[in-house]
Predict the 3D structure of the following.
Amino acid sequence: MTKTIPPSSSPAADAAGRFFNELPLAPAMLATLQQLEYLTMTPIQAASLPVTLAGRDLIAQAKTGSGKTAAFALPLLTKLNPRRFAVQAMVLCPTRELADQVTQEIRRLARFTDNIKILSLCGGSVMRPQRESLEHGAHIVVGTPGRIMDHLERGSLKLDALDTLVLDEADRMLDMGFYDDIAFVVKQCPAQRQTLLFSATYPEGIARLARQFMRDPQEVKLLEQHKENKIRQRFYKVENENRLQAVAQLLKLYRPVSALAFCNTKQQCRSLLEVLHAQGIKALTLNGDMEQRERDQVLIQFANRSCSVLVATDVAARGLDIAQLEAVINVDVTPDPEIHIHRIGRTGRADEDGWALNLCGPADRNRIINIARMMHIEPEWHDLAALQSSDDSALVPPMVTLQILGGRKEKIRPGDVLGALTGEAGFTREQVGKITVTDQYTYVAVVRNVAREAVRKLSAGKVKGKMVKVRALED
Ligand code: ADP
Ligand code: MG
């Protein structure tokens, strides 16, 4: 029997957001969950935990980040007898990285009972230390199929006390050609056991595994969000003292050309600006105290892609219309879910995808719950500590804004500036971006690596037959 959980507003989806204390879990486990701030269950947890805690086999289909680890770790830990020094649970993962992540998550969930030994057994490390660790006894092993098979063949791993077998990311294991290894390993497990299979997709190989190795499995399936929803929303837990630093971290990871960062107060905007500048990130802010001219200048730089981040409060951002916005960052979560929806609706426009990245402190919990309810979503939690940007180079906007003294009053038109740059100065059209003429100034975006030369040539030449003063708006 398959139970399918639709992505939104249905009774089944409402199972998500239920509290863990509705489950038959030990008080100590509930306390751990509370400590970890796992207050409500994710949809896949809500759908699978009643099944797995009852001891049944399960096939669960859900995408990354949906909280699958706890969905298998809780039943496995609940059954575990710490006084019995034998491998009672085994988790197979496709890669060392995933095995390490699973190991860490189980360790966190297991901290209410000391003396539970969890061992990671992956290829790429020497066998001997692993063998020695196994000799000292482990309760849970997490590993890749090939290495687990090696240990079984050499007799360093014994599975006769095993009562829970987990196949995590089973589709990826199959993609990587692990079918035979998995089959070998599963055959070494006692017939009397609980088998849990987790997968993001459901290819034929999974059905084959299930038919061969599972006993009347219950199936739980979490459907994807609708495709037309182009805003991908992610939630990150932060401590308040790391919040501003986390914004820089997110920017360096997602590397948007243009991002809008919302703060709840003007003071927070100022503080964030300082932090970002210290990191060499080109950020500007808008606030109500600015003159119209300053405000225009900020918006022009942001819109012509020469500023990576615009930091603003809701009031300051009112009426702002920016076409191309790769990301909205909620530096502070707003108490009003409608404002939240409005904020993130600024990204993911037209045919572009957009990121909505939310930094959530301990005090923001209820706000997130309200937002999730209103949007009919299950917050997709991601780990900030796990964010390692592969590209640690500075985040630099592609364009630089040049400011020309002289505007409408001098009857300058965009064509005059474009003509000056592509004529005698010798630049190509592609090196010139947006041109904006205001009353007193004209702003032109040029590709960053020709900016200095463009200032020099414009200053030396003429715009509309006149010498002009030009400077780059760079700190
Ligand atoms: P998956 O295996 O589905 O990709 P994980 O089990 O790795 O997802 O969980 C994703 C993230 O969500 C982890 O950082 C985990 O700590 C967190 N998480 C899991 N369950 C909950 C919950 N009920 N409440 C809050 N955070 C959770
Ligand atoms: Mg996982």
Summary: Residues 38, 41-42, 45, 62, 64-70, 105, 381, 383 surround adenosine-5'-diphosphate (ligand 1) (CB under 6 Å). The chain has three domains: 3-221, 228-386, 399-472.
